[in-house]
Write a structure and sequence with these properties.
Length: about 210
């Protein structure tokens, strides 16, 4: 699917309203996600910029992509408060506006659930990374428990959850998709954000290297 715009005005406002309380729990995971990074970073679907304050000072530049207009405006405000240089651009995951091998690091947090075609998004991230570049990810994924995975699949295929969640899907096997897109997954661990029974759990946090 080729997508040039994303417009989820209601989701965007609700997400922005609730990220303050979500951040109390997820902030420490964002810190872990971005720890030790350096060089040029591309961040996909940056939302309202909740990662920006967690980038270590060793990062030279972050180019953050956000296609949703309301969230992009909020991200631009967050960029001004960041301690590293952050530029916010309007772009969707399916066609990144960069040449091959421009970045040292790519960040995907809570976004591979929302892009229409995760394989294509990951191929684009792989393309714009230098060989050996790093993908850091923090994503919610399909449960390993068959009963819960069935419920997650039903929520996705019925369209109920994608409609409520700004295009979000809860049954994606994102770690497998990362491996299939030309990355070696170097570390990954499960974690829960919010109640473990929530359909948006489990989450995974990890790092993968472009082959
Ligand atoms: C749940 S929010 C997560 C925001 C942010 N990454 C974070 O960690 O808080 C999902 C984000 O994905 C973005 N998104 C949705 N479709 C997209 C697409 N096709 N390309 C890039 N970003 C997209 C949304 O606009 C939204 O900002």
């Amino acid at each position: 699917m080729n997508e040039t715009t994303v417009n989820h005005p209601v989701f965007a406002r609700i997400f922005d309203r609730f990220t303050g309380s979500l951040e109390k729990e997820i902030g420490a995971h964002r810190e872990e996600l971005l720890a030790g990074l350096s060089g040029r970073v591309v961040e996909l679907g940056a939302g309202n910029g909740m990662n920006f304050g967690h980038y270590p000072a060793t990062v030279a530049e972050v180019v953050a992509l956000e296609p949703e207009p309301y969230l992009r405006e909020r991200a631009e405000q967050a960029a001004q408060r960041a301690r590293v240089p952050v530029t916010v651009r309007d772009a969707t995951a399916d066609t990144l506006p960069f040449a091959d091998g421009e970045f040292d690091v790519a960040i995907a947090s809570l976004v591979l659930c929302s892009v229409p075609d995760p394989a294509r998004a990951l191929a684009e991230l792989r393309r714009v990374l230098k060989p050996g570049g790093e993908l850091r990810f923090l994503e919610h994924v399909r449960s390993a428990r068959p009963r819960k995975a069935r419920i997650q699949r039903r929520l996705d295929s019925s369209g109920i959850w994608p409609r409520l969640g700004g295009g979000c899907h809860c049954a994606r096997d994102t770690v497998a998709a990362i491996g299939a897109a030309g990355f070696d997954v170097e570390r990954v661990r499960d974690l829960d954000v919010g109640p473990s029974w929530a359909h948006t759990n489990p989450h995974v946090i990890g790092a993968a290297r472009a082959r």
